[in-house]
Design brief:
By secondary structure, this protein is α/β, with parallel strands linked by helices. The protein has 15 helices and 5 strands.
């Protein structure tokens, strides 16, 4: 017997079971509507239930379930279950491709996963390095080194990058703060002026909160800079200057770590360029901060053994240079030497 399908997609078409049910609802009897309502809420149930169990769950009969299956384009309950299994498989594949991407397959061995990652990250770093405008970066570094205050905006994954840049610049004497919450960021942005710099970090360039904070800083008069993978994005349009990265990531979406690595490259470069702008202040503050935390670091075994030998056979005291800055630099040199020996 062939059931007439008024406008219902054919069984051979790649249409989901859910779409078939929704399309056929107006033609269903009250008993079939019970089945349809239950399946729309629990679409995978037929993979676990027999036809009798589904009928009992919905308060209908096996015959009604069969008529329901025919109405939506299947010859019976078994083909109906096969279609649901296919939908589940398609959904899983779509989820994998959307979140992980086509670069990796579930059955790939670790060696393949590793080589694919290295290739993508290396290409991203090389492409970013080749397209960086070093004159632009030098200009931004000079402005940061001489500014009254430096604001950094980043939400989500970009917040990690913003915090890293703040930590590095603060150690070399730059007045800066990173903002990851819109209201607090807008408050700070409104207090900026022509002697300030504001940087927004957004890989996609479409994070609304980041855009709004940067726009506010620009309105207040600060020099605004965008660090993004998308030079035509809204965050770039909101900035006076744009530093563009290049991430080849087509996997681990939307937060591909290849994008983070190229951002770290730019952050590291910017930090070093700022440090060069004021070598004297940078070396003094680095030495002072290293000296402050050194008592809280466990010395390497070789250093501890050397200290015990000195206790047994004291040497003449060190002759430090007279100036306090030279003394700090000397002590910082000793600390970093110990670090290299770890």
């Amino acid at each position: 017997m062939v059931t007439k399908q008024t406008g219902t997609p054919g069984a051979g078409e790649a249409v989901s079971v859910t779409s078939r049910i929704q399309h056929a609802l107006p033609e269903m009897s009250a008993a079939m509507v019970k089945i349809a309502t239950f399946l729309l809420q629990h679409p995978r149930t037929p993979l676990e239930y027999s036809i009798l169990e589904l009928a009992e769950e919905t308060g209908t009969s096996a015959a009604t379930v069969t008529r329901f299956c025919r109405l939506i384009g299947f010859s019976g309950y078994v083909p109906f279950r096969v279609a649901i299994a296919s939908d589940v498989g398609r959904d899983s594949a779509a989820s994998w491709q959307s979140d992980i991407g086509q670069e990796f397959r579930p059955e790939d061995p670790p060696t393949t996963v590793l080589s694919t990652l290295i290739s993508a990250h290396t290409r991203s770093l090389q492409q970013t390095a080749s397209q960086l405008d070093l004159d632009l970066l030098s200009l931004v570094a000079t402005r940061i080194a001489t500014c009254r205050h430096f604001d950094i905006y980043g939400i989500g994954g970009s917040a990690v990058m913003a915090a890293e840049l703040e930590a590095r610049l603060y150690r070399i004497g730059i007045s800066c703060h990173h903002w990851v919450e819109l209201h607090a960021g807008l408050t700070s942005a409104a207090l900026q002026d022509a002697e300030c710099v504001a940087l927004a970090i957004s890989n996609t360039g479409r994070t609304e909160s980041t855009i709004q904070m940067l726009q506010q800083a620009r309105t207040a008069g600060a020099l605004t800079v965008a660090l993004t993978n998308n030079p035509s994005s809204p965050v770039a349009a909101a900035a006076d200057l744009t530093i563009t990265t290049s991430a080849f990531g087509r996997f681990l979406q939307p937060d591909d770590l290849a994008a983070k690595h190229v951002q770290l490259l730019v952050i590291d470069l910017l930090y070093l360029l700022v440090a060069q702008q004021n070598y004297s202040r940078a070396t003094t503050t680095l030495a002072a901060t290293a000296l402050a935390v050194s008592p809280h670091r466990r010395a390497p075994r070789a250093v501890r053994a050397s200290a015990r030998r000195e206790e047994r056979h004291p040497r003449p005291p060190h002759q430090f240079p007279a100036g306090p800055q030279d003394r700090l630099t000397h002590e910082f040199s000793e600390i970093t030497t110990e670090g290299r020996n770890t």
